[in-house]
Write a structure and sequence with these properties.
about 140 residues, Aminopeptidase, about 35% strand, GNAT family N-acetyltransferase, GNAT_dom, Acyl_CoA_acyltransferase
Length: about 140
């Protein structure tokens, strides 16, 4: 059974392990820990096993911003990113939810589009030669 819950500090090591599988190091441990402590980290569970996580904040011009969605490589293409996104949108504290993906990240772009997010702009110069595409979804469209 799949479900989404708020992460707790007890989940930190599992989240860092998944993150390390994806990026090859544990450099974001403090970032993940801070998100958990701020109650801004959601985890996707399958039979009580962590499959992935989402980190967000509400500081993007007064709107929610999903800053990270990470799914374990072994659990990809099974709907966990969508599960996390939809939970975030349906429980959003703000009327608008934004996120972004590099232009080279075609898989994530497809996930955004499949979940009703629309392109809302481009940010140049974050990653050299790989612009960031900003996505938007109105919480009113969540039904």
């Amino acid at each position: 059974m799949k479900k989404v819950v708020k992460a707790s500090v007890d989940d930190l090591d599992q989240l860092v392990e998944i993150d390390s599988e994806v990026i090859g190091n544990t450099s974001r441990k403090d970032f993940i820990k801070n998100a958990i402590e701020a109650e801004a980290c959601l985890i996707a569970l399958e039979n009580d096993e962590v499959a992935g996580y989402l980190i967000y904040d509400t500081h993007f011009f007064g709107c929610s911003f999903i800053s990270m969605i990470i799914v374990s490589p072994a659990k990809r293409r099974k709907g966990f990113a969508s599960l996390l996104m939809n939970h975030m949108v349906s429980h959003s504290e703000t009327e608008k939810v934004f996120s972004s993906a590099n232009r080279s990240n075609h898989d994530m772009q497809k996930v955004f589009e499949a979940n009703g997010f629309v392109e809302s702009g481009v940010i140049e110069n974050l990653d050299e030669g790989d612009p960031e595409i900003v996505y938007f979804k109105s919480v009113k469209e969540k039904q």
